[in-house]
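SGNH/GDSL hydrolase family protein
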Amino acid sequence: MNRRAATAACALGAVSALTLLAPATSTATAEAQTSSPNQVLIDAYGDSTTLGITCGDGHCAPQPRNAVTYLQLALAAHDGERVRVTNYGVGGTMATQLRDGTGNRRAGPTAGLPWRERLAGSPAQIVLINYGINEVMQNQTPEQFYAAETTLVQTARALGKEPVLQTSNPMPDNRLNARLAAMVAMTRRVAAEEQVPLVDQYAYVCSLPDWKALMSDGAHPKPELYRLKAEQDYRVVEPLVRRLLDNPH
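Tokens:
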């Protein structure tokens, strides 16, 4: 299957049941991060697909084999302990909630703070941002999503962080996936307008033959797909890490 056919299949695949995206607590630790001139800290923000939820036997829960963990392992293998990725994913959340500080407040001591305040207190140099699925489920408009992601990116950059946008992985349901494609288009638009790095997971996963077999339900990947997503993250993030390690401030 070529890339164009696979992408079409992504948008026109058979309908499958969607497991509701119930809020889940982030795996981020409450310990304050500290950085040194020869260390790079990365914060990963997003929904349940950042948190790392996988579903099976009618039960959905965060799994240790998720994209953030795989990214950490890949960076550590290349750059050692000088790089640390912290997972701030929270299930059931949207970009507007991250912006406004209205997400799951159990997800760390700063989770209830507005984005600017929260990020100002983080020593992370790189910030990953992954949203879109819950915007579809909560009937947000693409314009609302565009405004929220633009604010997230502009604020991060104003605070001296390197924002990296990620598009959501696709959803097997035709109708929902068509709406998700509109959100993905907004993420691509923000990345282009703000000139920030983009990991286009939606396009990548759509290019995989039989990608639906790698999904655990209507939204959450199986560990194998999380690993593949992490490889795409690594291709974009590692050059940023290398630049920071080679030119410490």
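The chain has a mean pLDDT of 88.
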